[in-house]
Specification:
By secondary structure, the protein is α+β, with helices and mostly antiparallel strands. It is built from 8 helices and 8 strands; from the N terminus they run H-H-E-E-E-E-E-E-H-E-E-H-H-H-H-H.
């Protein structure tokens, strides 16, 4: 469930979004005035669903604060396969690009704020502001790089190696992720992850 923001809080998050996006969208002030009209600041509480399976993804978002998890249901069991942490893109990309129903859920793992741009508005930007193409292209490129790296890692790395790599990349943010979701992401059982953590702790 999307939450309501006070006007001042909305403006603050919008300004943060502009700073975060500057590398992709170095827009002049007059261009930003047009661009921000298509932006929506969305706030969610821990446990809220940002996108449900079967819904069409209408937004390409960047996480201003908090984190989300992406998961599918397999024989009644939740299988987490991605997280979006602070300052990362958050989207069901295939659903967004094709404007077809998503095959997975996106849930807020913590209270989070997303800066989101609607699909229709982004298409208009592409037509009128060619420089905005870099924004959409960068999001998709990051996704496919991540996907390739993850698929190779699942085939070649041990569970401990995958865990250590994740810890190196997200040492602070992973504290927000419950053990069962992290284990699911690593494609192991929670008890296996507990043993890995215990082993690493003893080796310090």
């Amino acid at each position: 469930m999307e939450r309501t923001l006070a006007e001042e809080e909305y403006k603050q998050h919008l300004n943060k979004a502009r700073k975060l996006l500057y590398d992709y969208l170095p827009l002049r002030d007059e261009q930003w005035e047009v661009f921000k009209q298509g932006f929506k600041i969305r706030k969610y509480h821990k446990g809220d669903f940002i996108l449900n399976e079967g819904e069409t993804e209408r937004f390409l978002s960047i996480v201003i604060s908090g984190c989300t998890r992406h998961y599918i249901m397999v024989k009644g069991e939740e299988k987490s396969f991605d997280f979006s942490f602070q300052h990362e893109f958050n989207c069901s990309y295939s659903s967004f690009i094709q404007q077809e129903p998503s095959r997975f859920f996106i849930q807020a793992l913590d209270d989070c704020v997303l800066a989101s741009i609607h699909y229709d508005f982004l298409q208009q930007l592409y037509q009128h502001y060619p420089e905005s193409n870099k924004f959409g292209r960068t999001a998709v490129e990051q996704y496919y790089i991540w996907r390739e790296q993850r698929e190779i890692s699942l085939m070649t790395d041990s569970a401990q190696e995958r865990y250590l790599r994740l810890m190196e990349k997200y040492p602070i943010y992973l504290e927000q992720v419950p053990l069962k979701h992290l284990a699911s992401y690593l494609n192991i059982k929670p008890e296996s992850l507990s043993r890995i953590r215990k082993k690493l702790f003893e080796e310090r």
